[in-house]
Write a structure and sequence with these properties.
Elements lengths: L1 H9 L2 H49 L7 H8 L7 E5 L5 E3 L3 H9 L2 E2 L6 E3 L4 E9 L2 E8 L1 H53 L11 H52 L6 H27 L8 E4 H15 L3 E6 L4 E4 L1 H17 L6 E9 L2 E7 L34 H11 L3 E6 L5 E8 L5
Parallel strand pairs: 8-10
Antiparallel strand pairs: 1-2, 1-6, 3-4, 4-5, 5-6, 7-9, 10-11, 11-13, 12-13
Helix pairs in contact: 2-5, 6-7, 8-9, 9-10
Bound molecules: adenosine-5'-diphosphate.
Pfam families: HATPase_c, HisKA
Subcellular location: Membrane
Keywords: Kinase, Membrane, Phosphoprotein, Transferase, Transmembrane, Transmembrane helix, Two-component regulatory system
């Protein structure tokens, strides 16, 4: 359990980000420490070389020739610092400073450092050595650089400790800050769990960071759409079962009537059968419409269609069954890519409505053509019209305008929602307006992009 929690903690953004930042911080610090070491070595080396040059300069200026080397040789280097000077004259005479007899033999067996010319490591100390010819004498200096090296060591230690402290404290601060930052993600996850179990609420939209903000916005949007879909589906099932129940109850009522009374009153049979026939037809249409509503656009086969021709055929068929005259003006050929039955169903439903909601002997006008960047299909009737406040709602599933004029007319409230659904699939818009002097005009507006 404990190891599990540990592993879980290791997988958190807080832990992982801290580890990455700390490693980066450590690597950067290490790099700069190395640079610091190299620069310090270079600086110390230059200083030693300068120091040696100064000694040579001093020797050159006040040359020992006046009083002779033995009298002055110890003046140039500090015996306390264990530095040494050796002079070899042209005649072979050698003079040593106080420490020279000890220092030079020790250096003879010392180690030379590559790249740092003149630096020799004796067993105990670090020396800088240089030889120069001054007025015919060969002068060799060995400067003890132990003090400088110790200083450099000290500085390096201090700097390393400070850097280590910076990495440790920096990591803790990063852990703390990242923890605060990832708190937003943690509380987002908690909110999602709460939403999941409570089936309500939405995510808090933080102001920053913008990435989390946009995740929350998208999540809320998705949630809203999902809830709307669920609500729509629930409403659809409730509405559909209500629509199916009404004619079914009527049919069962008439069946019972025939069972109970047909023996004594056989005259009820024809009327009841006619009713059953009418209601079962209604059921058939309704169930077909419901199936159409649920058909997925993907399952349909698209092809290049002469849509004008299709519309003409539907108008011709409808003219035979409707009491109204149908006048159609169709611009041909207008080839569009789509599904044949989609266009047929759209025109058919609009024409059927025009026929249902308009008096006999009136005229229905159909127009299909293009204007500017659009292709239009309009169906106009001289019927009862649609009140302005209902115009938006008639495209909803199962919605019917319930007034004294239309309540007598058979319908299920699905026809226009089907037209709208098909129009949506073609990114077309459908609108309704009042016809003059009376009636309604339905207009489906396709963009010209659909033209082939
Ligand atoms: P249905 O006609 O089966 O009731 P629709 O979805 O086709 O269902 O139409 C929804 C409602 O819109 C109808 O009930 C009717 O009130 C109104 N409507 C549709 N077309 C017309 C029209 N051409 N004239 C007047 N009202 C109409």
């Amino acid at each position: 359990m404990k190891t599990n929690q540990k592993a879980l903690r290791r997988n958190t953004a807080q832990f992982q980000l801290t580890r990455q930042f700390s490693l980066l911080l450590g690597a950067v610090m290490l790099f700069f420490n190395l640079v610091f070491i190299l620069l310090s070595i270079g600086y110390l080396y230059e200083r030693l070389a300068d120091q040696a040059d100064q000694v040579f300069e001093t020797i050159e200026k006040g040359h020992a020739a006046k009083s002779g080397w033995p009298a002055v040789i110890d003046v140039y280097v500090s015996a306390d610092e264990e530095s040494a000077l050796r002079v070899r004259q042209a005649d072979g005479q050698v003079y040593n400073s106080e420490e020279a007899t000890e220092v030079f033999p020790a250096l003879a067996t010392g180690k030379i450092i590559p790249l740092l010319e003149g630096i020799v490591l004796s067993e105990e100390d670090v020396y800088y050595t240089k030889t120069e010819e001054i007025n015919g004498d060969q002068v060799t200096i060995a400067l003890n650089s132990e003090a400088s090296v110790e200083l450099a060591y000290g500085l390096l230690w201090i700097s390393s400790l400070l850097n280590l402290a910076a990495v440790v404290i920096g990591s803790l601060l990063i852990y703390w800050r990242v923890g605060k930052w990832s708190q937003k993600l943690t509380s987002m996850a908690k909110e999602i769990t709460a939403i999941e179990s409570g089936k309500s609420g939405e995510l808090t939209v933080v102001r920053e960071p913008v990435e989390i903000q946009s995740v929350a916005i998208s999540f809320n949007q998705l949630l809203k759409e999902q809830r709307e879909t669920i609500a729509r589906e629930k409403r659809f099932i409730a509405d559909a079962s209500h629509e199916l129940r009404t004619p079914l109850a009527a049919i069962r009522g008439h069946v019972k009537l025939i069972q109970r009374r047909s023996a004594a009153h056989p005259e009820v049979i024809p009327a009841s059968l006619e009713f059953i026939d009418k209601e079962s037809k209604r059921l058939e249409i309704l169930s077909n419409q419901l199936l159409d509503l649920e058909k997925q656009p993907m399952t349909k086969q698209t092809q290049t269609l002469d849509v004008g021709q299709l519309i003409r055929e539907v108008c011709e068929k409808q003219a035979i069954v409707s009491t109204q005259a149908i006048d159609y003006v169709i611009e041909e050929p207008l080839m569009m890519k789509g599904v044949k039955t989609d266009f047929q169903q759209m025109v058919q439903n609009l024409l059927e409505n025009a026929a249902k909601y308009a008096p006999a002997e009136t005229m229905i006008h159909v127009h299909f053509g293009q204007k500017d960047q659009h292709i239009y299909l309009s169906v106009a009737d001289q019927g009862i019209g649609i009140p302005d406040d209902k115009k938006d709602r008639i495209f909803d599933r199962f919605y019917r305008v319930e007034d004294s004029r239309s309540s007598e007319i058979n319908g299920s409230g699905i026809g226009l929602s089907l037209v709208k659904q098909i129009a949506d699939q073609y990114q077309a818009t459908i609108t309704v307006a009042d016809n003059q002097p009376k009636g309604s005009v339905f207009v489906v507006d396709f963009s010209k992009n659909h033209l082939i």
